[in-house]
């Protein structure tokens, strides 16, 4: 098994806390999204002017970063409780900000939705990632809800924010 695919530890015990392995796993995920985007671009039934990207946890950070790494593809990016490494890895303080910063060049508004009681990402760390993203010229709104990592499953806590965000993109 190639553990670099997801940035897994070589013993298969979970995600590697090693910065190089984690970033290599992220880069591999970018390749996967590239394949999906190529497919979407080939479809005549997809309105390219209305594409938005979103994800949860690793998908959330990937959505923000990918939008900046491939500008002019997406018109919006939505991040639910995003992060590549959780607080169980000391290097999350290095890896997550580096990856989020890659999203800044997108030049689009982004929406960051976080649970204040997330078991993987402390809210202070998440706010710090957002501030670093903004300092790198990123654009967005940061929303905190009284929830944990399963925020996605409580739409009453974020639906109005998402509706407003999509309305602002002209996607209503």
Automatic annotation (TrEMBL):
The keyword Hydrolase applies. It holds the Pfam family Peptidase_S9. Transmembrane segments: none annotated. Keywords: Hydrolase. SUPFAM superfamilies: alpha/beta-Hydrolases. It comes from the Bacteria. GO terms for molecular function: hydrolase activity. Residues 28-79 form the Peptidase S9 prolyl oligopeptidase catalytic domain. InterPro entries: AB_hydrolase_fold, Peptidase_S9_cat. This is Dienelactone hydrolase. The lineage of its organism: Bacteria, Pseudomonadati, Pseudomonadota, Alphaproteobacteria, Hyphomicrobiales.
């Amino acid at each position: 098994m190639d553990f670099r695919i997801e940035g897994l530890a070589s013993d298969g015990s979970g995600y590697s806390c090693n910065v190089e392995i984690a970033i290599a796993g992220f880069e591999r995920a970018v390749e996967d999204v590239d394949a999906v985007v190529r497919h979407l671009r080939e479809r005549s039934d997809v309105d390219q002017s209305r594409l938005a990207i979103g994800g949860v946890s690793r998908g959330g950070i990937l959505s923000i970063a990918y939008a900046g790494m491939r500008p002019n593809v997406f018109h919006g990016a939505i991040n639910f409780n995003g992060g590549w490494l959780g607080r169980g890895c000391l290097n999350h303080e290095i890896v997550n900000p580096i990856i989020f910063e890659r999203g800044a060049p997108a030049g689009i508004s982004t929406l960051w939705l976080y649970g204040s009681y997330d078991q993987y990402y402390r809210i202070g760390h998440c706010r710090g990632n957002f501030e670093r993203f903004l300092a790198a010229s990123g654009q967005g709104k940061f929303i905190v809800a009284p929830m944990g990592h399963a925020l996605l499953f409580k739409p009453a806590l974020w639906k109005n924010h998402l509706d407003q965000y999509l309305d602002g993109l002209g996607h209503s």
